[in-house]
Write a structure and sequence with these properties.
Blueprint (H helix, E strand, L loop, with lengths): L11 E3 L2 E6 L2 E6 L3 H7 L4 H23 L12 H14 L30 H4 L5 E5 L4 E6 L4 H4 L8 E11 L6 E7 L3 E2 L8 E6 L8 E13 L2 E4 L7 E8 L2
Helix pairs in contact: 2-3
Length: 250
């Protein structure tokens, strides 16, 4: 590496020449196109493979989020996107067939997505303290989430100020290769957070029978305050919760 001589030393860049200081003195080097090297240099092969798989996982996470977008309204912590991408990387790395850099979600293990919480600040398990029953019938395309009768004030960890809640659920068969989805979303009516027992709840979904794609079932809860018949959300939905409660892989 050429070394700067003379009493006057330079720092910075001029054209494609960079003047810099290292512990052994002042040096000169020619700028290199790192982006081009990453794309073509054999030394960066692992970097290219990692980047390709990260992009695949990020796209898969975005597809799942987009499919259930209306459910996620106000149900997500600030790190949800990065957490879901990390989970998708785990799914992708479970692909034991494809070459490194070409592994994908379809050949991975989508069962790893079960129990994923969309709001770690208010988890579904810690908010809706009841035992729900998920059912996924791939043959008929019938998917449901059932909750037995319960007393809201005893089995819901509601935030201060909330007077009502609703249960939301959604199911979808997702093809992560073609990016085609078959989804169905449902929600209950608003129910009071009182001490009267509620009837059993069953949210029934229908998608195409005999799907070859992984099927996801999500369950969530939303809170609001009702005053004089008008609904008011609480703190932009920060207290709401949702999770993937079942995954059926073909």
């Amino acid at each position: 590496m050429p070394k700067q001589n003379g009493a006057l030393k330079f720092l910075g860049s001029l054209g494609d020449i960079t003047y810099y200081k290292a512990k052994d003195g002042y040096f000169i080097k020619q700028k290199t196109n790192l982006r081009k090297r990453i794309k073509t240099d054999p030394k960066f092969q692992r970097t290219r493979e990692n980047a390709a798989e990260f992009a695949t996982a990020a796209r898969a996470g975005k597809l799942l989020r987009t499919t259930f977008r209306s459910m996620f309204r106000g149900i997500a912590d600030h790190r949800m996107v990065s957490r879901l991408t990390k989970k998708m990387i785990g799914v992708l790395q479970a692909d034991l067939v494809s070459d490194r850099g070409l592994r994908n979600i379809t050949k991975g293990d989508t069962l790893l997505l079960k129990d994923f919480e969309f709001n770690l600040e208010n988890s579904l398990n810690g908010t809706l303290i009841v035992k729900w029953l998920p059912v996924v019938d791939r043959v008929t395309g019938q998917v449901s989430a059932s909750i037995p009768s319960f007393v809201p004030c005893k089995l819901i960890a509601a935030p201060d100020g909330a007077t009502h809640f609703m249960i939301v659920s959604g199911t979808a068969a997702i093809n992560f290769d073609s990016r085609n989805t078959d989804a169905d979303l449902k929600e209950t009516e608003l129910m009071p957070l009182g001490d009267d027992p509620l009837n059993a709840i069953k949210l029934q979904h229908a998608i195409m029978p005999n799907s070859k794609d992984p099927i996801f079932l999500l369950l969530g809860i939303r809170f609001c305050q009702v005053i004089n018949g008008k609904q008011y959300p609480l703190k932009n939905g920060a207290f709401n919760a949702a999770a993937i409660i079942a995954v059926s892989a073909n």
